[in-house]
Amino acid sequence: MLTEQQYRHYKTFGFVVLRQVFTPDELAVINKEFDHGLKAAYRHLPFDGKVRHWVTMMGRSTPFFASLLEDGRLCGIAEQLYGADTLGVASDANRYVGDTRWHPDTHSIHQYGIKFAYYLQPVGPETGALRVIPGSHRNPYHDELKRGMPEFGLPIEDVPSHVCASEPGDVVGFDLRLWHASYGGSNDRRMCTCVYYNNPGTPEELEATRKQGASNGKATTTYHRPGDPLVDPYWIANADGSPKRQRWLDRLLELGFFQDVVGGESQ
Question: What domain range includes position 134?
Answer without folding.
Answer: 4-254
